[in-house]
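Researcher: Let's do a round of design. I'm pasting the structure tokens now; please hold your answer until I've finished.
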């Protein structure tokens, strides 16, 4: 069979990028572990057909396997995630691919809207970090026509109602627990959501692998990013000391905290937030 003239180092890079060890990936490729190791060590050349399968199962473009060295992958939007107040490590292949997919959808939708003479969405950049949290909370509720307290008793009902109100003002809300197929689940520990800002096609993504209660907090948090016109990936870490994350957390807490009167979810305790710092944030911003 025809052999593929592939850089052996790219095979190892692709497998490790997909976060799969030798036994796991050998099983996926339906080959012995020794055969996989021989490909990656350059002892044996991989066939063209198997190379295409290799690329497909590691979710990388087939052409990447012919590169002399791995490409430098950078997230196309600000990475606002932290662990103990510090930046996180390299994003997963799922997160890279998901953001690219959402950006492609956003670009298509933006072109569609412009071709139909759509107007800019009024909430994008409507607030700044110099505004008070209370003012932004009040503005969000007024624009969305959100009641002071939820009028229904189930999370799913209120969540869907709020998503509908957000989409009616022109902000797309994408929600799924995996990318493409259930074999590529999204990790809540890696991220909870992200916001893609645009004057005509702003978009929010919510990681639906998360529990129902935290999804509401994330939805409001990402909506605040749209209000500020500051895109980014969020993980809900209360120790995050970035100004925009503290601000969006404070806005989400003020809105979500009222929901605990009707629902059994308290963002203050769930996310490890403290009322006192939140009050300080409100005063500061």
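Researcher: That's everything. Go ahead.
Model: Designed sequence:
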């Amino acid at each position: 069979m025809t052999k593929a003239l592939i850089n052996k180092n790219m095979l190892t890079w692709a497998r490790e990028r997909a976060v799969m060890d030798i036994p796991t990936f050998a099983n996926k490729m339906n080959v012995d572990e020794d055969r996989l190791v021989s490909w990656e060590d350059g002892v044996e050349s991989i066939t063209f057909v198997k190379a295409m399968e290799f690329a497909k199962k590691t979710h990388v473009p087939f052409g990447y396997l012919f590169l002399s060295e791995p490409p430098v992958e950078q997230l196309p939007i600000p990475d606002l995630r932290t662990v103990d107040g510090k930046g996180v490590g390299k994003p997963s292949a799922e997160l890279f691919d998901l953001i690219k997919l959402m950006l492609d959808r956003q670009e298509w939708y933006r072109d569609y809207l412009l071709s139909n003479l759509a107007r800019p969405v009024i909430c994008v950049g409507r607030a700044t970090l110099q505004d008070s949290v209370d003012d932004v909370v009040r503005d969000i509720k007024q624009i969305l026509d959100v009641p002071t307290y939820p009028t229904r008793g189930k999370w799913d009902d209120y969540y869907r109602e709020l998503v509908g109100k957000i989409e009616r003002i022109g902000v797309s809300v994408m929600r799924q627990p995996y990318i493409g197929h259930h074999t590529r689940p999204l990790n809540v520990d890696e991220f909870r959501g992200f916001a893609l800002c645009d004057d005509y096609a702003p978009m929010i993504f919510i990681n639906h692998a998360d529990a129902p209660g935290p999804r509401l907090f994330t939805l409001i948090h990402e909506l605040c990013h749209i209000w500020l016109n500051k895109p980014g990936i969020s993980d809900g870490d209360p120790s995050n000391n970035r100004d925009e994350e503290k601000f969006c957390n404070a806005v989400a807490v003020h809105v979500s905290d009222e929901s605990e009167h009707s629902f059994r979810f308290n963002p203050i305790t769930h996310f490890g937030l403290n009322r006192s710092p939140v009050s300080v944030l409100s005063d500061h911003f």
